[in-house]
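Batch manifest line 467
LIGAND: magnesium ion
JOB: complex structure
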Amino acid sequence: MTVSAEMWLGITVGGLMFIWGMFQKFFLNQFHDRIGIYGQKLVNLASPYHEITFNEYTGDRFERSNAYTTIETYLGANSSARAKRLKADMVRDGQSLILSMDDREERNYKLTFHKRHRDFITKSYLNHVMAERKAIAVRMRQRRLYTNNRSEQWHGYKRTMWSHVEFDHPAKFETLALEPKKKQEILNDLITFSKAKQYAKIGKAWKRGYLLYGPPGTGKSTMAAAMANLLQYDVYDLELTAVKDNTELRKLLIDTSSKSIIVIEDIDCSLDLTGQRKKEKKKDEGEEVDQVRRKKKDEDESTSTKVTLSGLLNFIDGLWSACGSERLIVFTTNFVEKLDPALIRRGRMDKHIKLSYCSFEAFKVLAKNYLDLDSHKLFTTISCLLGETNITPADVAENLMPKSAEDGPQTCLENLIKALETAKEEARLKDEEEERLKAEKEQEGERLKAEKEEKEKEQKRAEEVED
Ligand SMILES: Nc1ncnc2c1ncn2[C@@H]1O[C@H](COP(=O)(O)OP(=O)(O)OP(=O)(O)O)[C@@H](O)[C@H]1O
Ligand SMILES: [Mg+2]
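JOB STATUS: finished
ARTIFACT:
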């Protein structure tokens, strides 16, 4: 072959390759696409199934699609159970791992359904997924315990009315020592409240007030925490003595989120009967404070820094709360009789719950909690003693707690019996002492009466002699 013949062949082969490339690019690809489209149409015609795809990212926005994240939450663990590539994250307690889909895993969800169910899927099912997703998000979120800051901290760069920490209280209704009937009643009330969307429909703020009263150590604070845990609410622990006036109180309320429980502990100590906030005791240690200046300061305080009863009533009535949001208000007190009736009338404090000394039923809950006991031969003795003396659940719990590793249930129950006997003896001595004081007082009264009578007689006699 000559050089020119070789060159000609080379050019021809090159030309053919080029033409084949062009043919592929412009004709075959289009042909292929068309086949794809028509093929899919044909399959769709034949197949009764429809499909919705939810891509993680839509359009050219670099934001994750809401629909995708909704489904991700809804499917929860299921989606990662099927994924081949997983990534692990440490959860907040640092003790367990959460597995989720790896970033390189293809991210979209496909919902396939029979075309006859199209209406059901697009109208009902997807709405259900969205509603469920909200409920799941509420269940999963880390709840918070808020405490109110003094208003001096409300301004500036880090201004916050409420400071928060993670709310991690272990209290549960199951472990609360209370008569089962009473416990069930409270549980029913709370659950009915949490589902009562009609509150908003009838124009009533979706809130409910609970007044928990009883002696110290009967579980008022524990119950407030159990309520928050049951309903999965945040807790706002409102310290009224740190609130300057009604305006501040209103601002604080506006700044609370929905699905929350606002707790005011020992309400009787924060507000006195006349509606005047009790002044906080301030220690003026060391330096002598100028009397005049101090008087002026007190006057200023009494005119400008107080939360009044009516301010608190407005607060409770939810006049300032956003409608439709779920809020519980809980007051605790040791002295219910000290509270203004207006403050605790039904409608404001819808439910009054008396927490009292430990009954046998309540003791059984504590024995189960602390010793995992359902029955024991010492229970009869304990039942008798509980009927004869007053002891708080806090004291019972304290005695049931093993003091050392060797302490078994028998020892703990014996400790409790000893404590009950001591309490009974102390109560007997106290009663005796009271009786003695009463008798002494009566005797003294009689003596004074006799003395008075004797004096009167003497006076009469003296008058007769004079006559
Ligand atoms: N009814 C109860 N059920 C279970 N545990 C209880 C109960 N009452 C008290 N306790 C235990 O006693 C401790 C003190 O209880 P809590 O703080 O709830 O009492 P309180 O009624 O709020 O008292 P105070 O009036 O002094 O605020 C709790 O940590 C809890 O372990
Ligand atoms: Mg308390």
